[in-house]
Amino acid sequence: MALEHAILVSLAEKTASGYDLARRFDASIGHFWKASHQQIYKVLGRMESDKWVESHLVAQDNRPDKKVYSITNEGRDELMRWSSVPTPIEPLRSEFAVKLRGTQFGDREAVLADVRVRRAAHEAQIAYYEASAQRHYPEPASLREDELGAYLVLRGGILAEQTGMAWCDEILQAFEAER
Amino acid sequence: MALEHAILVSLAEKTASGYDLARRFDASIGHFWKASHQQIYKVLGRMESDKWVESHLVAQDNRPDKKVYSITNEGRDELMRWSSVPTPIEPLRSEFAVKLRGTQFGDREAVLADVRVRRAAHEAQIAYYEASAQRHYPEPASLREDELGAYLVLRGGILAEQTGMAWCDEILQAFEAER
DNA sequence: CCTGACATGTAACGAGTTACATGATTGA
DNA sequence: TCAATCATGTAACTCGTTACATGTCAGG
Fold it and tell me: Which GO MF terms does the UniProt record name (chains A, B) (predicted)?
């Protein structure tokens, strides 16, 4: 399972509570791997049994206690082992593609409206990613070693969104040409 | 669930047995939505209870009987209804991105080897898709209405694979530059 | 005789989502 | 007083995968 490894990577960067991790999975890491807090707590429990992480309670003023997790040496070993195994190639999976394929059996105008909404969403996401790149990595030619991975992932996000937008444009053009 | 609708689209094009559908999900439709035969039989059962499809047994010579499914009017109505509801935007989900992000905690050379394998896989997939496009849609400027959806989905596949390959190239370059 | 294509399922499990459950503090 | 943020979980359910289960026929 990749969620465990996503958590290990996140904890290797910085210790965190389940709540902190849930917020990270809403932002940075969450751009390519989503997880709900419920699932995170569940998996953290299993990971602690497996000794990949350990926790200690931290009391706070005016706030609930929190359980701060950190990665163990066994966790670091597992990360090393996992990184050396080839990643299975994930097949594409797109409900939108199914719908596009079946346009002739559906509401053509609604599908086109959907394409326009998706195009706008891709556009917004590109703007967001590019602002993020500008802010965190203004000089991509001289990145620190520990920044490279996150930067390349961001680049992957930008490329994917640009492609999504280009696809929407092609679909709109094809449908307009046909009219 | 989209599998039900993928099956509806497939049956709207042509009646099929569970076995036939499983083969279609290994090829054309399967390029953007995978399903095992076990899952298909399970879902077909539910869809028949819901009256979206109906089946009749067909005896064959020298072969086992088969249950041929066809879409009902209710099934067509459902397809129309579904097509008019906006498709939820599927967030990216990539174990490979997690691994890339965590390269500093792993085996850098193994990750790079993985990138090269993935690049080759994208390249092969592009060749496959382009041959398919050439064979089925030699003249994209003049497509029949019932071909347009499948053609555009194929285009989406080509664009996605090209992007995947471009990303791999960027990763390889960045790691080589750093050395 | 053995493999592969044809044909249809069940059972057990794992991953992930949705709904439920609780409780403190801060600011509008 | 009401909503938002902080903080941690359980329970029920759905979707999908893997393993198991069975049997025919054609071709090498």
Answer: DNA binding
- Cα distances (Å, whole numbers) of residue B60 to A22, B37, B65, B68: 56, 21, 6, 12
Residue numbers in A near B31 (CB within 8 A): 91-92
Torsion of CA A134, A140, A145, A149, to 10 degrees: 70
The dihedral through the CA atoms of A37, A41, A47, A52 has a sign that is positive
For residue B147, give the amino acid letter. Answer: E
Q: Does A83 touch chain B (CB under 8 A)?
A: yes
| Interface contact flag, A148 B103, Cβ < 8 Å | yes
pLDDT of B89-139, one tens digit each? 999 999 999 999 999 999 999 999 999 999 999 999 999 999 999 999 999
Nearest to A97 among B32, B82, B86 (CB): B32
Strand A16-17, strand A63-71: pairing: antiparallel
3-state secondary structure (DSSP) of residue B30: helix
- The reply to whether residue B91 touches residue A34, judged by beta carbons under 8 angstroms, is yes
Sheet hosting strand A53-60, strand order edge to edge: A16-17, A63-71, A53-60
Alpha carbons A81 and A66: distance in angstroms, whole number: 30
